[in-house]
Amino acid sequence: MLAKLIGQKYLSIGKAWVPTLAAWGGVGGIAVIHFTDWRLILDYVPYINGKFKTD
């Protein structure tokens, strides 16, 4: 169905770009955490959330 909308050529080009986009998305996510308040973002990660509890 998707191939009918955008065409077979562009679908195959898009499939080739998926790993590259995933890698750059991961790098971008890490950059956002690095350049912002990392504690604010990492408070939502379940494993890391318990390490920084203050009483």
UniProtKB/TrEMBL annotation:
<dbReference type="InterPro" id="IPR029027">
    <property type="entry name" value="Single_a-helix_sf"/>
</dbReference>
<dbReference type="GO" id="GO:0005743">
    <property type="term" value="C:mitochondrial inner membrane"/>
</dbReference>
<dbReference type="InterPro" id="IPR015089">
    <property type="entry name" value="UQCR"/>
</dbReference>
<dbReference type="Pfam" id="PF08997">
    <property type="entry name" value="UCR_6-4kD"/>
</dbReference>
<protein>
    <recommendedName>
        <fullName>Cytochrome b-c1 complex subunit 10</fullName>
    </recommendedName>
</protein>
<dbReference type="GO" id="GO:0006122">
    <property type="term" value="P:mitochondrial electron transport, ubiquinol to cytochrome c"/>
</dbReference>
